[in-house]
Amino acid sequence: MSKITTELLLERAVPRSTRLRKIETLNLSKLQLKTGDLDPRLFSRLRHLQKLDLSDNLLDKFPNSLTLPDLRVLNCNNNKLEDVTALKQFPLLEELTYENNVYLTLNDDYKVMFLLQNLRLLNGKDITKLASHVRRVNSRKLTSKVTAHWEKFFRDQLPEKYTAEQVKSIKKKFLKSVQTNVVYGPSSLSEFTRWRVKMIAEELLACSLGLDLSTDPESEEIMDENEEESTESPREAAEDVVGDFSSYVNSVTVTPSKRKRNHSKPGSGNKRSKTQANTEEEAEDVSAEPLHFLQCHSKGNSREDFKTQLWSCVFEPLLDCGARKDPIMSSSRTVATCGGESVCLIDCETGTVLKKYKVATEEFFSVAWTTLTMVISDSRKKSHNILAAAGRRGIVKLIHVAADFCYGEIKAHKKPIATVCFSPTRETHLFTASYDKRIALWDIGIPDCDYNFKASQLLVLEALSIPLRIALVPTCPDQYLLAGCEGGCFAWNIKLDKEQKSRPFEATFQFPDEDGGMTTSHRVDGLAFLNDDVVVSKSSKPGCIYLWSWSRSFDTKGKGCQRTISAVILAELEWSPTDLSYLTLSSCPAKDYVFCGDEKGSVWMYNLSNYTTAWTSAKGKRSDRRIPPTQILKWPELRENGEQLTEVLINNVVSDPTFTYLVVLTSVNITAIWKKS
Fold this sequence. Notes:
Structural class: alpha+beta
Strand content: 25-35%
Subcellular location: Chromosome, Centromere, Kinetochore; Chromosome, Telomere; Cytoplasm, Cytoskeleton, Microtubule organizing center, Centrosome; Nucleus
CATH superfamily of the largest domain: YVTN repeat-like/Quinoprotein amine dehydrogenase
Organism: Stercorarius parasiticus (Parasitic jaeger)
Protein name: Leucine-rich repeat and WD repeat-containing protein 1
CATH architecture of the largest domain: 7 Propeller
Keywords: Centromere, Chromatin regulator, Chromosome, Cytoplasm, Cytoskeleton, DNA replication, Kinetochore, Leucine-rich repeat, Nucleus, Repeat, Telomere, WD repeat
Pfam family, one: LRR_LRWD1
């Protein structure tokens, strides 16, 4: 087709115009335009253009000198854009959309938020608050890190009188080093961070040494572990998976205001103080403060959805970054959550929903992370985090998060999958526990550079009832798996050197019942290891969580061929007297903490560091009385449209490995994030 002409521009003006300088709105969509068709000389005559629609074309980038000084609204949906930095030439831009450009990622979102100071809406979402954080807080912290890196490692390398060659050498080394070693924020934003670090470093050099800000080609060199996989061909995700790469999804965030601390003990009376966000909260949180309350799993993005149940969350593992590991960021602050038709990735510090994946016909029950060493371009190997998500359809979705791509699925069971977990020793081994009363072990394989992979079933563990929670024994994760089921607590031998592919359970555990006897028949809906030996489980009876020894219980098996074993109880934790099920528990082994929510929206926290040493003793005795919670976090009185949210159940509570953040999943479609003080 012909290039853009003056006649075409006048014809596509809204309304039609007789002069280019009078055009304020211009529709150039669906014209198969390529970058070369945007003639800067012609566009420079559109001095008063405010709205430009370039959607549904073939643009891969923007020319650097379109000269549209008054442009306020730009639509670039459905193109092939690879870079957004040229958009800085439109400083008055307020609204920008570029959805369905498969090469653009969350990093590009952050770049335009930094570059365009007046931007309010990005892809239809209000980004005012987030953009302010990116421009101010993010920039301030990165500047501090870059400056510290220069002062510590490079400032003294320059002599008092230096030559141009010395300056050039120092500049090259500094730019390479600072981009490698200065990291901040979640790994999903590493490209944006490197981009800003390089920009800040060049500004620092210009200010300190009077260097030219232009970058010579050599300084673009970055170590292999940080290179982008630019030679991989991005591809669209499966039709039923939608990646919404934003924190500005249609979510409700309620952030209570700061308040005075109350150092009262759990259970003591406290006055309530109303917050700026229509919340009231009992001031019993001695060690944790609420950061965010997010409504990001709504069906159809409805703000009226307070019925979607949220079930599972797990923190993203840190990739092995070697020297790039930031001591301040000692653990990941990105968490994956699931419930209803969606899986979300959330930055706990900012409350940003980084990504959102939807499957309209699914209800997700469980998510799990693994880190795969994948072969990328030029036969190089690189570690990537892969997220597995499963639920009612019995299908496991495999998502390469950094690429925003659901690359495959495993039809694991014909009935719903209750929970999934990866082996800590074998990165491709995934366990799926299903309502079909089976636990399957899969090898999900490693995808090649075209995302081809082959999954295979290695083992099937037969259960007598539905498995609800599973845990691999830390001291022998390749040999034994423990499961809490509808009908009890069971253990299986999972060693793969055995020929038997389908296996019955090897042992079932007895616990005290309400009548003082022992029973194996009870629902176990909470299960976790506190350390290498101590197991935490509920609910053999209401109001109680048991801590028991795996080794001392299972050792008794060697004395005979008994399939029923009495759990060696170490202690009981005092908990809610409710008989409601499926309010699960979790642990933080590094800090000796156990967490469990209840039927009133409260989170029960137990610091067990004073007990674990005694329990590890071979003769460690059972604690005589129930251990009370160290602290109970009360649910704030959140109000939506003036109405208070009531009957909040806490389905799950998970902390990051260092217990910096606590993520609380509820029955009312609210994800609450607390931060340890």
